[in-house]
From TrEMBL:
The keyword Transcription regulation applies. Its EC number is 2.1.1.-. It comes from the Bacteria. Transmembrane segments: none annotated. Keywords: Activator, DNA-binding, Methyltransferase, Transcription, Transcription regulation, Transferase. One of its GO terms (molecular function) is methyltransferase activity. GO terms for biological process: methylation. SUPFAM superfamilies: Ada DNA repair protein, N-terminal domain (N-Ada 10), Homeodomain-like. It holds the Pfam family Ada_Zn_binding. Its cofactor is Zn(2+). Residues 86-184 form the HTH araC/xylS-type domain. This is AraC family transcriptional regulator of adaptative response / methylphosphotriester-DNA alkyltransferase methyltransferase. The lineage of its organism: Bacteria, Bacillati, Bacillota, Bacilli, Bacillales.
Length: 190
């Protein structure tokens, strides 16, 4: 079972600012000043960045003295399969660079590929493949903003094996090309 998530502080910060549901249950946001912890998708007012800590496990965050948010209720499990889906998502986040087939993911969690895909889609409304693509594009967007790597280098860095597929998926999810995305970000900074 995978418990640590391979995301930087800034990447997790971006996820809570965007209220990204894909990462619910994978990590928790703890606010030092209020002693409350939330899901990444919580719609409550966002704290100052310097007052935030991230935890990958609910027991860790509660051990540190934080209580659950009353708005997003991070301690409430909404489905009997949510823990399994979280393990799958954690595996995808930690292994997004690898060439993963559905069978590889299914072997990791001990399910048949068919049942895994059906269960995952039931819980997230997406297939593991589309979810993995979103994780890869999130990582690519982060790299476009924070590094000087070329688009091609980023393509391979985030686990795509075909630049044309990378550009196609990026455009579908971000409504622009990687170059346009970087240019837009740099224009916002000016």
């Amino acid at each position: 079972m995978v418990t640590n998530i391979d995301l930087s502080f800034d990447e997790m910060w971006e996820k809570i600012i965007a209220c990204d549901r894909k990462y619910d249950g994978i990590f928790f946001t703890a606010v030092k000043t209020t002693k409350i912890y939330c899901r990444p998708s919580c719609r409550s007012r966002k704290p100052k960045k310097m007052n935030v800590e991230f935890y990958s496990d609910m027991s860790e965050v509660e051990k540190a003295g934080y209580r659950p948010c009353k708005r997003c209720q991070p301690e409430v499990e909404h489905s009997p399969n949510i823990a399994l889906v979280r393990n799958i998502i954690t595996f995808l986040v930690n292994h997004y660079k690898q060439n993963l087939a559905l069978k590889d993911i299914a072997d990791q969690v001990g399910l048949s590929p068919f049942y895994l895909e059906r269960l995952f889609k039931q819980e997230t409304s997406e297939t593991p493949r589309t979810y993995l693509e979103k994780i890869r594009i999130d990582k690519a967007a982060y790299l476009l903003k924070s590094t000087n790597l070329t688009n091609l280098e980023i393509c391979y860095e985030v686990g795509f094996h075909s630049p044309s597929n990378f550009y196609k998926v990026f455009r579908n999810l971000k409504n622009c090309s990687p170059s346009e995305y970087r240019k837009e970000f740099l224009n916002e900074l000016d």
